[in-house]
Design goal:
This protein is an alpha+beta fold and 244 residues long. It has seven helices and 15 strands.
Amino acid sequence: MSPAHPTSLPTFAALNDRWQPIGSLQALYVRAGKEPAPRSVAEVEAISGCGLAGDCHAAPLSPRQLLIAGTDAYQRWGLAEGALRENLRVDFSTSGLSSGDLLRIGSDVVLWITFLCEPCRLLERRSPGIVAKIGRDRGMLARVLRGGTVRSGDEVAICPAMAPAFSDQWQTRVQQVACAVPEGAWISFRQLAEMAGVQTAYCRAFPKVLAQLPASVAARVRSQRSAASEAPWSGDGFFGVGMD
């Protein structure tokens, strides 16, 4: 099942008997755009299709609206509080989560697990040596499917493999977004990076990745300057997973 097409999930009420409790929410963090580090909060509003209210990563076209990290990673590597720069810290290992899983936080909020968050150079600059230390233990990224208030201490439950899955390989995600652009439309390199969940620094590698696709598909990805007179694709439908 591909996230490039709208998908209807069972209604929230229909999932009542399928949720499996797996732990609880230990801490919450939000970082506004100009704040140097995430700040701890007791509760925050999760906005459907956008992310956490006031957080710099909240964006309708992003598969990485928030980051979930496990307390086990902190204990295993002896990390300082907030070192992984997560939004949600849970008391179970995120290694047991897979893309396409749904998490219920409290009684209302539902998150769609998208893909693994690998340590980046920005994290390394802030905490030298952390990338080599934690490897794949940073956590899992997610989108908000159903909004509501998230509170520290909330119970967390899982409904496995209910939503479309994403690849952990950024090249595959870039190609998937490009293939979803409708015929006759186009997408900028910057928007492609956002929708694939990669930093804009990756844009320089896009031509090589896109060259593996049919030329007619690769041609739909352009620089903003070369298509300034035309409106780009809105991205409508790519994250079209619905839950009533």
